[in-house]
């Protein structure tokens, strides 16, 4: 009998039963006021006169009118470089002990994002929120006694000017509470291995020693790790190694494109739970099994705003026009794409993280990630966001009985005009012309803007199949394997030329 598991499950269920009903809109108003109060004496708070904003009868409106949008380049050049240089009280009180490195989607240069103690506390509370939500999923008691495989970047953080830096998953794992260490795998020693391939090989070698009940990590890297474990032990699926595996906490990107290929690695279905952890904070997690949507965590040191995802408001580099309107949680509508804006306890203010989301349930503040502001294909008026591209790929998987966990494309100019040129990452290889026709026909039926574009400047679709491993190698060559990496779903022509040269060398 799972005595400890029954105790843990009972505590979680009792806590949820006693939890009061909350109002996300009111919680967000309180969070904004707390952020402004705490940061009013910082350099940023004095510059934008937070004290006066706090005296306003409409704090949220005055706040948006007083402070411009900031992408990483703007806030870094104007403010965070001072923090990086060691100045205190720049955009948040004190000086952060950690910086999260994020190479974004270009891999040209790592961003350095402050991670304050308040942010680490926020991430811990969000993780606790997720654990409490497990009471809604009716997991058996013995699940709460199993170990958790947390696959992220290395916890071997680098020292720089007295601060520690690394990817947010590595920072979070290096700060897990002492009581959790007995459940945490692969454990401190393996987690500190910098080389991704070496770390995964060590996981494979030790896999049979562990009783894994849950997985947590980015889908693309999780798949590659599971494949390595399966191949190393020469078994058919991961449940032959970890028979008690019952849940997977996905995060960082939408899970839908990976669903078919991920499930193929299992012996039987498990509970998939989506989360939204970025370098800038832990924003949302799925808290009920009836939906795959995630609930925004609205009382945890992060204030959210939402800009309608309209080409008139979004610049080519993913930044926003100065006149782009922002909405509060009380003003949004369901099934509309929004650019997510955050203000946080790490001193990010009206910060564009580059993701787009849509609300599936406004009253519950439940969302889904729909794409990236930079991954919007509108070169020839086709107006395709990532969620529409994902739908098209899922259609191919169902129609052609194939697994396509990775893809990228570009509106590429040929002698006779533009073609949407796709690279589909799959270990199966089908007729490329037939696949292109199927893809083209689906998009014309599903998207009126695409159909109009096909009657004008867009000549058609070209499809190329490449091995899934090529996408992993590309990410490894441009960034760092195993971390918070978002594969470029849409590329500009210059970047796409780099990609095609890479593919020709590695296929």
Task: Walk me through what this model shows.
The chain is an alpha/beta fold and 507 residues long. The protein contains 17 helices and 18 strands. The strands form three sheets. Strands 6-3-7-8-9-10-11-15-14-13-12 form an eleven-stranded mixed sheet, with helices on both faces. It has a four-stranded mixed sheet with strand order 2-1-5-4. Strands 16-17-18 form a three-stranded mixed sheet. A hairpin with a 2-residue loop joins β9 and β10 (281-285). α14 (432-446) crosses α15. The radius of gyration is 23 Å and the shape is globular. This is GH3 auxin-responsive promoter family protein. It comes from Flagellimonas okinawensis.
Largest sheet: 11 strands, mixed
Would you identify the regions where 5 or more consecutive residues have pLDDT less than 50?
Answer: 1-14
**How many strands?**
18
Strand order of the largest sheet: 6-3-7-8-9-10-11-15-14-13-12
What descriptors fit this protein?
18 strands, eleven-stranded mixed β-sheet, alpha/beta, single chain, GH3_C, four-stranded mixed β-sheet, GMP Synthetase, Chain A, domain 3, disordered N terminus, GH3_M, 507 residues, 2 domains
């Amino acid at each position: 009998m799972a005595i400890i598991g029954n105790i843990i499950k009972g505590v979680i269920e009792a806590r949820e039963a006693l939890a009061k009903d909350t109002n996300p809109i009111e919680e967000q108003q309180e969070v904004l006021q707390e952020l402004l109060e705490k940061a009013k004496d910082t350099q940023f708070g004095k510059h934008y006169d937070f004290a006066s904003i706090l005296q306003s009868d409409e704090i949220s409106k005055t706040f948006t009118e007083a402070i411009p949008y900031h992408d990483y380049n703007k806030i870094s050049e104007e403010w965070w470089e001072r923090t990086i240089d060691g100045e205190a009280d720049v955009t948040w009180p004190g000086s952060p002990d950690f910086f999260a490195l994020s190479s974004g989607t270009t891999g040209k240069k790592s961003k350095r994002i402050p991670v304050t103690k308040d942010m680490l506390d926020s991430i811990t509370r969000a993780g606790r929120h997720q654990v409490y939500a497990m009471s809604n999923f009716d997991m058996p008691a013995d699940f709460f006694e199993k170990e958790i495989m947390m696959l992220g970047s290395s916890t071997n953080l680098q020292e720089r000017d007295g601060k520690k830096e690394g990817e947010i998953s590595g920072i979070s794992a290096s700060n897990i509470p002492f009581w959790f260490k007995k459940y945490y795998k692969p454990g401190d020693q393996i987690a500190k291995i910098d080389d991704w391939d070496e770390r995964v090989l060590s996981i494979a070698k030790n896999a049979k020693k562990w009783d894994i009940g849950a997985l947590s990590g980015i889908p693309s890297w999780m798949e590659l790790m599971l494949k390595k474990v399966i191949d190393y032990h020469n078994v058919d699926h991961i449940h032959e190694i970890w028979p008690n595996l019952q849940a997977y906490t996905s995060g960082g990107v939408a899970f839908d494109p990976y669903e078919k290929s991920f499930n193929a690695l299992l012996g039987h279905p498990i509970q998939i739970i989506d989360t939204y952890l970025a370098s800038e904070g832990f924003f949302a997690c799925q808290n009920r099994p009836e939906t795959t949507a995630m609930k925004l965590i609205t009382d945890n040191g992060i204030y959210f705003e939402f800009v309608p995802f309209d080409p008139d408001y979004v610049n080519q580099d993913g930044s926003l026009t100065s006149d782009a309107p922002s909405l509060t949680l009380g003003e949004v509508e369901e099934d509309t794409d929004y650019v997510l804006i955050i203000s946080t306890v790490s001193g990010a203010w009206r910060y564009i993280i580059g993701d787009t989301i849509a609300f599936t349930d406004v009253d519950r503040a439940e969302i889904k990630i729909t794409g990236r502001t930079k991954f919007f294909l509108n070169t020839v008026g086709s107006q395709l966001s990532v969620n529409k591209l994902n739908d098209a790929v899922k259609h191919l998987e169902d129609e052609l009985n194939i697994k396509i966990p990775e893809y990228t494309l570009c509106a590429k100019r040929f002698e006779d005009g533009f073609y949407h040129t796709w690279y589909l990452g799959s270990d199966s290889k089908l007729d490329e012309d037939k696949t292109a026709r199927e893809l083209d026909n689906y998009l014309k039926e599903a998207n009126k803007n695409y159909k109009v574009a096909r009657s004008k400047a867009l000549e058609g679709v070209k499809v190329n199949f490449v091995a899934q491993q090529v996408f992993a190698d590309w990410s490894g060559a441009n960034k760092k394997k195993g971390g918070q990496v978002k594969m470029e779903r849409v590329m500009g022509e210059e970047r796409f030329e780099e990609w095609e040269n890479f593919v020709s060398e590695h296929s």
